[in-house]
Here is the input.
Amino acid sequence: MIVPVLLLIVLLLNVGAPQTEAYQVRKEISFNWIRDSRDVIRNQTAVLLRRDGYEADRLLVRTDDGYLLTVYRILPVKSRLGAVLLHHGIRQSSDMWMFLGPKRSLAYQLYEAGYDVWFSNSRASPESQGHERLDRDSDHYWDFSFHEIGTEDLSAVIDYILAATGRRTLHFVGYSEAASAVLALLSELPGYNEKLASLELIAPPAFMQYGQFAWIARMVQPLRALFPWSVYYSRDALPTQICTLFRNECCLLFGQMSDRGNGTRTERSPSGAYNPAGCFDLEDVSLKQLEHYRQIIASGRFQQFDYGYAVNLHRYKSKSPPDYCLWDVTARVALHYGNKDKTVDYRGVELLARRLPKAAELQKTLYKGFNHRDFYRNPKAQSTVYANVLKSIKRHTATEQ
Here is the structure.
């Protein structure tokens, strides 16, 4: 009872009439936390590739809604077996795939095995180039979740790679949020199933009600339903006020789930200047991304974004957001997950496997002792996870050809 009472006090003190009036005058929805204007390294992937002895092209891909994405390609020295696209998790960039260094990292193993290796960066990544019209610090820039990263970013990158290589299909490897995004893409635009030779999903977040964030996600849910969209999402409004009091809980939900500590920009950065401000540092993430995950954790459903009753009726012709049509995911899928992952609990991954079409080719591999970050940080991933991913891609390459 203590937590609900404290939350009620927060609401009474901080969401009063004067603030409500200000939000009404502004008439602007914010998905953007107040951001640090410090300089960031926007070519970290290229720096790490060069340091590890690989040369790469740094390319620009424009999405249909105007975002300018950075894509890397390790320069091929001979005819390649097939194209492989690797995409990062939330609050990360393509540099995560270099974390373990030469020989150990999955990207390098794929390249040495003869594949044409590409890396994509979402619109949230500090390595991408912003938007052709919107300022990166504007609220409208950050009006997206993993849904748009899938349907807009990944679709644009996939089409670009297939056009550049002249291939009909490519292999996709996605860690964490990348899996949510590509599942949204394949559900909403099923034609892209035919463009993917295989789908390797590592620690895929879809059904997350069993993980460590379930209790706080459900605690916030009644408050989300009580307030108008403009009040709940206005900068410094409800989420910020709650997190001021419940900092530890918000660190759990927004910090660890967001996986800021990818290590590549601190342990492997050439300058070593990048110093994240801890678990509540919300750089390079949209509030809408985090809220979408909070929503699916609380609901136990892999569904589209909940805009509230009125907007849902307008957008979806339904009072509640629809579930993603996982039965439309017909690509060959391999799921890689750990029994010690508290962010993406193994039970949720197994539920995802049951929701995918029975006719689709599906593989599941559970890695004992692996937590969420072990899939790119733990050297043991080289001989376990990456060996299985490479074996799966090789098998589907034979099928593709």
